[in-house]
Amino acid sequence: MRHLFGAVLFAAMTPALAEVPPPEELKLVSEHPVDGMPAGNLSGLAWCGDALWAVSDREDDRLYRLDSSATVWQAEAERFVAPPAPAMPLPWGLRMRGWVSGLVRGGHLDFEGISCDAKGNRYLVSESRAAVLQVPPAADAQWLNLPEGMVRQARASGMLLHFNSLFEGIAVDPAGERLWLAAEKERRGLVVLHNRRATWRCEGGCVLLNEGGEEASPEALGGRSAPVDFSGLAFFEEKLYTLERQAHRICRRTPATGEAERCWSFAAEALTDERRYPLHYGVAEALSMDAEGAWVGLDNGGHARGDGEKRPLVWRFAAPAGGWGANP
């Protein structure tokens, strides 16, 4: 009976997907190695003010402004002090595995994404704590007071159940009134929170979308099946955009439901011999969108790709003909 209830719950909370047109291939405009991130592991990107900012999942006390005045970008660190993280309702086993992982590789907070509002506040999502840290431009960092029901609802829908498969992306609207988080895989999904009178809350439920299952990787990777995933999230012109690492694509989604409207592939550019990594999974972890194109950041874990490059990289893709909002 318990298994039957779970199956019914998943079916009820997973919206029927509209038929999405085949993805169009994006054109790579430029790529930029990044110096100045000693720990590597670029895990989040966001355009804030006049520059791109990045975060590493191996460092708990800094984010980086990217100086893009040359082909090789220089990362300039801005340090902050994160207060003790709030206790969200994650099981003891998940919390302990995150703590041990932080001891071994660095990054107890495991920051996996960054987003900005129009006031210049930076928002960092901690995968290990299922929490969001706000870093204002001229004030102390502080954790958002997120409702515990958000984590409970996500876990009840099948998300946030597995180590290293928790929240992987974050997006905030310019007004700082809506915040979305992307659960990575097994099951992947989207949750949304609303800021009402300085209080973050679920309105009609936090979970927008949850999906399980596997899909084939691009043919250049052998077409092997892998769990569907989200590795980055961005908000642009009233649409959500998900970075889907294993499928090597970006998808435009409806903010109110998470339903996919259209997707674009970057597999052809990413999987050339010189850009391939000796890994059985994707390395695209970070996403920022604008009218002219998309920025995609790579977390290569220090591995060298086909041409020997080992530094973190940022790719610039041109927007498709007609722009990101164009319909097929």
From TrEMBL:
Sequence ranges assigned to domain Phytase-like in this UniProt record: 38-187
Signal peptide: 1-18
Highest taxon listed in the record's lineage: Bacteria
Coiled-coil region(s): none
Keywords for the protein's UniProt record, in alphabetical order: Signal
SUPFAM superfamilies, A to Z: YWTD domain (SSF63825)
Name of the protein in question: Esterase-like activity of phytase
Organism expressing this protein natively: Phytopseudomonas argentinensis
Taxonomic lineage: Bacteria, Pseudomonadati, Pseudomonadota, Gammaproteobacteria, Pseudomonadales
